[in-house]
Amino acid sequence: MGEASRFCHFRGERLLEASRLTKIYRVGGEPVYALRDVEFVAPQGDFVVINGPSGSGKTTFLNLIAVIDRPTSGEVYIEGEPTSTQSEGQLAALRKTTIGLVFQSFNLIPVLSAAENVEYPLLLQGSERSPRRARVAAMLAEVGLSELARRRPSALSGGQRQRVAIARALITGPKIVLADEPTANLDSETGGAVMDLMRRLNEEHCVTFVVVTHDPAVSKYAKRRVRILDGRLEEGGDHGMVDSAS
Fold first, then answer.
1. How far is CA 220 from CA 193, 209, 214, in A?
2. 177 φ, ψ to 5°?
3. Is residue 237 in some structural domain?
4. What is the C-alpha separation between 2 and 4, in angstroms, rounded?
5. 18-22, 172-176, 236-240: which range is least confident on average?
6. I need a labelling partner for 40 at 20 to 30 A (CA). Which of 10, 83, 99, 244 fits?
7. By residue range, what is the domain housing residue 128?
8. How far is it between the farthest Cα atoms of the chain?
9. Residue 5 above 90 pLDDT?
């Protein structure tokens, strides 16, 4: 994964932490537990793959640590700060600066080019045009899409669209990237290439990645594996780089 990969190691600080995280939905007046007292910590430089079947609580968990949804009880900490006391505006700002999101369905804006999709988060931040455009060009080069910068999503393959989505997630320099089933709409070869890209970016930039998936093949890319079943998380696999993902 290149020379830089030797320099990204787990660090002591708890960049992302969930404590006794519980989410309950009401169905016909009856409580349904989507998550039960979940404990989770991800330090800087981690690459966690959370594997579990449909309905296990993966997406619920991701939405909670992305501060898109609020838990029924428990707490999510970002860089040691509790999020439960923060306003919706503060949480939105956190998602703009600290957390990058990658979705199963790419969520690209169809009328914008690849470059414009990547640029969009910087526009929301009010970044100046010249450095903004330079940053976009550099990020597209990093994900191997410089020659396709002007194409709209409809003119890109699934793998290329996911690379645009990853570039968009990283363009603001987040410390954490959360990916929801990033290979679900891709064939196995393209999905492997996308995961290789995410691991390289993790190693070269020391960005923490948390990937939730139902696909067991994605687990080989993990530095750390976690299994989720019936709303409970269990550590699995070795803590450390997996040779097959190098």
1. 13, 14, 13
2. -120, 125
3. no
4. 6
5. 236-240
6. 244
7. 112-173
8. 56
9. no
Total count of domains within the chain: 1
Whether residue 197 lies inside any domain: the answer is no
Q: What is the C-alpha to C-alpha distance for residues 14 and 149, in angstroms, rounded to an integer?
A: 36
Q: Is the pLDDT of residue 176 over 60?
A: yes
* Tokens linked to 212: 């939730």
Give the three-class secondary structure for 74.
strand
Q: Establish if 2 belongs to a structural domain.
A: no
Q: DSSP letter at 215?
A: -
Cβ–Cβ under 8 Å, residues 61 and 35: yes
Yes or no: say if 44 and 175 are a contact pair by the CB < 8 Å rule.
yes
State yes or no: pLDDT of 164 exceeds 50.
Answer: yes
Mean pLDDT, rounded, for 67-73 = 95
Listed in sequence order, the residues at least 6 apart from 233 whose beta carbon sits closer than 8 Å to its beta carbon are 38, 39, 40, 50, 61, 226, 227
- pTM score: 0.88
Residue 132: inside a domain: yes
- Helix, coil or strand: residue 94: helix
DSSP3 helix / strand / coil % (the chain, rounded to 5):
40, 25, 35
Position 89 scores a pLDDT of 93
Q: Which two tokens stand for residue 218?
A: 């994605």
Q: If DSSP codes are grouped into helix, strand and coil, which group holds residue 105?
A: coil
